[in-house]
What we know:
Chain A is α/β, with parallel strands linked by helices.
Amino acid sequence: xxxxxxxxxxxxxxxxxxxxxxxxxxxxxxxxxxxxxxxxxxxxxxxxxxxxxxxxxxxxxxxxxxxxxxxxxxxxxxxxxxxxxxxxxxxxxxxxxxxxxxxxxxxxxxxxxxxxxxxxxxxxxxxxxxxxxxxxxxxxxxxxxxxxxxxxxxxxxxxxxxxxxxxxxxxxxxxxxxxxxxxxxxxxxxxxxxxxxxxxxxxxxxxxxxxxxxxxxxxxxxxxxxxxxxxxxxxxxxxxxxxxxxxxxxxxxxxxxxxxxxxxxxxxxxxxxxxxxxxxxxxxxxxxxxxxxxxxxxxxxxxxxxxxxxxxxxxxxxxxxxxxxxxxxxxxxxxxxxxxxxxxxxxxxxxxxxxxxxxxxxxxxxxxxxxxxxxxxxxxxxxxxxxxxxxxxxxxxxxxxxxxxxxxxxxxxxxxxxxxxxxxxxxxxxxxxxxxxxx
Amino acid sequence: xxxxxxxxxxxxxxxxxxxxxxxxxxxxxxxxxxxxxxxxxxxxxxxxxxxxxxxxxxxxxxxxxxxxxxxxxxxxxxxxxxxxxxxxxxxxxxxxxxxxxxxxxxxxxxxxxxxxxxxxxxxxxxxxxxxxxxxxxxxxxxxxxxxxxxxxxxxxxxxxxxxxxxxxxxxxxxxxxxxxxxxxxxxxxxxxxxxxxxxxxxxxxxxxxxxxxxxxxxxxxxxxxxxxxxxxxxxxxxxxxxxxxxxxxxxxxxxxxxxxxxxxxxxxxxxxxxxxxxxxxxxxxxxxxxxxxxxxxxxxxxxxxxxxxxxxxxxxxxxxxxxxxxxxxxxxxxxxxxxxxxxxxxxxxxxxxxxxxxxxxxxxxxxxxxxxxxxxxxxxxxxxxxxxxxxxxxxxxxxxxxxxxxxxxxxxxxxxxxxxxxxxxxxxxxxxxxxxxxxxxxxxxxxxxxxxxxxxxxxxxxxxxxxxxxxxxxxxxxxxxxxxxxxxxxxxxxxxxxxxxxxxxxxxxxxxxxxxxxxxxxxxxxxxxxxxxxxxxxxxxxxxxxxxxxxxxx
Lengths: 439, 554
Ligand SMILES: [Zn+2]
Ligand SMILES: [Zn+2]
Ligand SMILES: [Zn+2]
């Protein structure tokens, strides 16, 4: 009988009755063959590996993280509540000590959902990992968390949620934004003024394969992690770097994903993208599960896998080597000021237009952070969906000082009186008060 | 017309003859482990003394034969030939010494991704032949999606084998390591089971009972006709608890979510009913340390029974899990749960005086008032039963679901009633009731409930249908059935086909079409997309004759 070195909980929730549309890449069939493979391998008979049912997230879990306009229920479908609840279940298994590690094999994904949410972007509506992390912090106290995003697309949503948070290290490795959706994720984006160096982007050239990914792990990710000393390591385990993925251009393999997982040792992995539902997902998901559990994965490979033909060119390797030389510096010697936003009095302000590709509209947004010497600073957001009603959000962060906390409430009051906003939301992490106004 | 039920248990062999008005004959004889047939024979000859042989229509038999053969290692060597492809190292599942891994692979849709290597297949067979193997199991990964490689193996083994088990014949459910273990055990007990089946048929002929139909009990709370059981003897293992559970169904009208206890000498078996239906183990039962695909009722055993010894550990009174000889009432030395119940006048069995004296002496030795000792012992036993039950229900409620609908609509199991059987059932009934505060029932005839259960259990079967309209195929692995279907084939057609094949299969087994008890247990259809176009549908349907009894007595 096989026995897992680390006990592993798998929350498998394929949402067999939900899809964006019948032929959309993120559809019912997506985890079907993964389920077949895991069952046929007898994965859940391995001593120490157990399957669990997801929980259903509460609206409060979502509203603790996101400014949702008009409201969470209008944006997140039931499947989002369950996908998020699946990640929360994974976190609970680890936090309660029932399992050493957990893997939330759930859909739909979440890493393109930003701090403010008006609809769905890149198949994501709410940020599954962020909601999970803030659930952990709310219930188990402040933790230092590192989120490593290994999806092929830049985790722009997660970057945005944690842009101002010095206690969350976000590292995204992805196909270079000049060649793929969402077109962002460059090294210059090092974090907001209070969290500089805590946002690390590693854009990789198309065609990167196992050797390139492992070089990035060894020379960028692991040294930074070692210094950051997180209480928890989370892996946004997107699988669309696979050489057969229909919507990307990378050459990563199941063996590569498993080796990466073995090195990273995440406490919790949460499935993100990955749309080669027959040729990749069954093998990659098996490889990651075995690596998490510490069971031999050396026989896991895709039919027709040929490491020789997938190998990256010398140019690619030397380009990645250059990245490995420069990127760690962003963390170890962060820039003096953020590349985004201008200083306006006590506030750092940025204006942005955000495109929602799934629904085809643009949001215009002004986000301001009150620069405070005693805490992370008060955050406020004004937002509008193309000629739609205005929304207003204000967040008093974890560990806010009295001044920021009181300023937060007086700004909210002022906004209510002026009533130029149709929707308003207050996230008060200090007193755990979550309020919404408007209709 | 009479239905016979025989349950060959660890200690006793119980038999009943049931007529239209109830029990017409019942008998309990000691089980002779060296010669199970003789126990069955003597039970039968007792029965026919009162029951008219010409009225007997059917005999349902639950036997520990295969179980014992496996537990005691009395089975023959098997040549196990597997082919795996990518995934876990197949050598991790090496179940016996003649175990051979052949290169070749199929994927999850059943497409061949690598041809079977004929040369190494030949080598494997000749190596098995050299070690004198006469029965073979051939298992390939994903064979329920495409049995081609297993059939190639069967062809190559050919005349070398007296018997061959192919993995896909066991079930259409996926689980390669379990399929290996199940096929292996099926071969290992094949000869011993078939000899037993021959002997049963011979005995019945001798006794003038050649006309009756014989069924063998399975662990899933169903039966299979004797001729069929000869090919799948592994299905007869661990059918003992199933007989008891089916007995409760026959004796009581179960409609709510319920808990069933069968309290024996050394263990208590716990089973859970959802509404009127017993829960089935999701994957299959474990044989030794090997999980298999043998369907079984979900029965959880704990080490608390009438003969469980009372002990004191760090000032706490405990019952079980050890059995240190019989109760004092039956000549033992160390007080047991039964002795505690006797002290409290809940139980009237064995030598009461001796039991009470021994119990009091034990109590004074450890400076406890015997009343207090008895109360604490019973409380400890009830607590253990209670805690295990709660854990079991919680575990069942935690079982994974795969659709939003299931998750949001899924109702939790909330037991509303308790049924108890087995020796100490009556004695412990009130204590159980006080702990759970749930209606608690001990049926009449609880002492032969297992034989009644055996007699009335109906034939069950389960099939999986799988269709891939892109390829234009539909097949039912366990029946070895394969058919071409048009691209328009859909879920509705698949459900209809699955039901028809299930009933036809029963017909072949000479079981009257049991349409009322046939039901679809899982059914799904997935669009398969290539680029932006739907290229076909991947359809899966599971249906079964649900476990149950032909009629009830209450
Ligand atoms: Zn990414
Ligand atoms: Zn992606
Ligand atoms: Zn402050």
